[in-house]
Design goal:
The protein is an alpha+beta fold. It is built from eight helices and 25 strands. Helices cover about 20% and strands about 30% of the residues. The strands form five sheets. Strands 3, 4, 5, 7, 8, 11, 17, 20, 21, 22, 23 and 24 form a twelve-stranded mixed sheet that branches. Strands 12, 13, 14, 15, 16 and 25 form a six-stranded antiparallel sheet that branches. The chain has a three-stranded antiparallel sheet with strand order 6-10-9. The longest helix has 17 residues. It starts with a helix and ends with a strand. Keywords: Signal.
Length: about 350
């Protein structure tokens, strides 16, 4: 009898080990709701103009501000937070910046300068709220037509736009992002219209960038003066630092340097159209371009895609390194040189 009981006990234990109770199964298997939560955490979005990951989709409208680049206006405020900056000649050999903000919000932007028609064209390509102080006759006509939402210091000098005491006019007009939002609300502008996304390289593609080594880029807008703009690639950070007339481009308040991931130079036709030296600049025909990424240069072309002047390679929109981009528009590629 004892042998029979022992055999029955062994059979019982064996059955338990092969068929664990339901409670044990539940403890040993991962909860289905927890798996789905983990998967949700892995979902990420990208800012449309930088390709930088963010944990929620950005619905902020782009703001495109005209920023002064006269020597008396340097260093500027806000440039380090711009997703994209177009640098283009105004009158003479002085350039101006169209700084497009979307992923980051600067506290203060300026000095703000007057509008030109070709800068308005560039701003329209990103469905931007356009910020300027003053205008050329051609630009005034466009702004009065209502074709682009805008805030202009001619209408808000001393209210939305403030005059800095440490600089002299016309190099002292500034606007805060808070005042941009106040002005947009007063004008009932929709600020929840993000721009269309650009194309960006993934990590593997960034590692495989190839082309001609070019870690120093110089752009001379005035042949009779020192280089107007210079970009130096920094191996440690993997980014480009920028210089204007030999001085590093930094933030006025913090001295934080502008750091860039893509530098693009495009060649297009420039024409002087009046006695004041104002220009007409072709932003539609396409043409030669250089693309600088990670210390490497590629000969490419530029095209106007839906109002945006952008780089193209082999007929396709060129992918950018995730991060910030500066685009220099020049009348001749002879103005540009680069070296290791």
């Amino acid at each position: 009898m004892p042998l029979l009981l022992a055999a029955m006990f062994i059979l019982f234990l064996s059955a338990c080990s092969k068929n664990p109770p339901e409670e044990a199964k539940k403890k040993n298997s991962p909860p289905t709701d927890q798996v789905s939560e983990d998967e949700e955490e892995k979902v990420s979005f990208q800012f449309p103009l930088t390709g930088i990951e963010t944990n929620k989709e950005s619905d902020r409208r782009a703001v495109a501000a005209m920023i002064n680049n006269h020597p008396a206006a340097r260093p500027q405020s806000g440039l380090s937070k711009a997703d994209i900056v177009y640098e283009v000649l105004a009158e003479g050999s002085i350039t101006r910046f169209l700084a497009i903000f979307q992923s980051e919000i600067p506290d203060n932007i300026g000095p703000i300068r007057s509008a030109r028609d070709y800068f308005i064209e560039l701003a329209e390509g990103y469905n931007s709220l356009y910020i300027a102080h003053g205008y050329s006759p051609e630009a005034k006509q466009i702004l009065l037509s209502g074709s682009i939402d805008h805030l202009n210091g001619m209408n808000y000098d001393g209210t939305l736009f403030k005059r800095a005491t440490f600089r002299k006019a016309p190099h002292n007009s500034y606007i805060t992002y808070d005042n941009i939002e106040k002005g947009a609300e007063a004008q009932e502008y929709d600020m929840a219209k993000p721009p269309a996304k650009l194309e960006f390289l993934n990590e593997d593609e960034v590692d495989k960038i190839n082309g001609e080594k070019a870690e120093s880029v110089t752009i001379t807008y005035n042949p009779n003066s020192q280089p107007s703009a210079k970009y130096e690639f920094d191996q440690k950070s993997g980014k480009y630092f920028r210089y204007s007339d030999g001085e590093q481009t930094v933030e006025y308040e913090t001295e934080q340097p502008v750091q860039l991931d893509n530098v693009i130079v495009i060649e297009t036709t420039h024409s002087v159209i009046d006695s004041a030296g104002r220009r007409s600049i072709d932003l539609t025909s396409g043409g030669k371009a250089y693309l600088f990424q990670k210390g490497i240069m590629k000969n490419i072309e530029w095209k106007n895609q839906d109002g945006r002047v952008l780089p193209f390679e082999d007929g396709q929109l060129a992918k950018l390194v995730p991060g910030k981009t500066w685009i220099n528009i020049v009348p001749k590629m002879e103005n540009v040189s680069y070296s290791e």
